[in-house]
Specification:
Elements lengths: L5 E7 L5 E7 L1 H37 L5 H32 L8 E3 L1 H16 L4 E6 L4 E3 L1 H17 L6 E9 L2 E8 L21 H6 L6 H11 L3 E7 L3 E7 L11
Parallel strand pairs: 4-6
Antiparallel strand pairs: 1-2, 3-5, 6-7, 7-9, 8-9
The structure holds adenosine-5'-diphosphate.
Length: 262
């Protein structure tokens, strides 16, 4: 009981007896703390780009005669920061929606082959020829939300691009392992130290903040992946060795395999 916070109430009862009511507030305090941290982190993430944009706007107002090249450079920097804020707000809205009980999962048949081919194309486009990206897709269609899985798988694939140096390779694999469908993204990139693995799916947790930001990261990608998988009864397995690479595998229950009978 040492780490728990108990609220104890003594309520008078008949015949001079009393009732002792205890309530464990540990869990509600933990949730409250998480909510506070989330708001603090999100505000901090939004403040930095806002400061940059406001700074350039002030320059634009106070120096109306700036030459065109400088002005264009400032506009480009402002656009970049604006995009960063937009990505962040969109990821926050996605997370909120995924957690909301008002949006229960409505499973449909997910056409895996076209979905994975689309993700392959998008991953290759993001890499811009800097990596070898391949797809092996032997697995079946499953029941789930195509949109949510597109976003989860796309997040894992784009992370592989962002955390793998040029010249590296990225494999997208959809197969059945011991009766269970599995989507794995295997990269030979920078890898992750063992001390970080258990915290990676926390909101805004990053191993290297500057690398994440440089590559347009919001710090919410894996939190979104985790929630999408949770809604599908799936789990995320992460294996990684620093400087060797990482494997992120989404494992689905056998029952999620789509069959004609439903
Ligand atoms: P971010 O937007 O920062 O990439 P994510 O939630 O997607 O946020 O990932 C959290 C952190 O996990 C990243 O900041 C990065 O440190 C680490 N990470 C995620 N994917 C990989 C990967 N494939 N290789 C190495 N590190 C990764």
């Amino acid at each position: 009981l040492r780490d728990r916070k108990l609220i104890v109430q003594i309520i008078p009862f008949e015949n001079r007896r009393q009732i002792l009511v205890t309530h464990d507030a540990t869990e509600s305090e933990r949730i409250e703390r998480m909510r506070r941290d989330f708001i603090a982190n999100a505000s901090h993430e939004l403040r930095t780009p806002l400061t940059v944009i406001n700074g350039f706007l002030e320059i634009a107002l106070s120096q109306p005669d700036l030459n065109v090249q400088t002005r264009m450079a400032h506009l480009r920097l402002m656009t970049e920061q604006g995009r960063r804020m937009q990505n962040l707000v969109e990821d926050m809205l996605t997370l909120t929606r995924l957690e909301s009980i008002e949006y229960p999962l409505r499973p449909e048949r997910v056409p895996m082959r076209p979905l994975l081919e689309q993700i392959l194309q998008e991953t290759q486009a993001l890499s811009g020829g800097r990596h070898t990206v391949t797809l092996e897709a032997d697995g079946p269609d499953i029941k789930g939300s195509t949109d949510e899985l597109r976003s989860a798988f796309g997040n894992l694939a784009s992370n592989a691009v962002r955390y793998t140096p040029d010249g590296g390779s990225i494999r997208l694999v959809w197969r059945v392992v011991e009766g269970k469908p599995e989507f794995a993204v295997v990269d030979n990139g920078i890898g992750i130290g063992p001390e970080h693995l258990s915290r990676l799916t926390e909101r805004f947790y990053r191993v290297d903040k500057s690398r994440s930001r440089e590559t347009q990261g919001t710090g919410l990608g894996l939190a979104i992946v985790k929630h999408v998988l949770l809604r599908h009864g799936a789990t995320l397995a992460i294996a990684s060795v620093p400087d060797k690479g990482s494997t992120f595998a989404a494992r689905f229950p056998a029952a999620s395999i789509y069959s004609q009978e439903g």
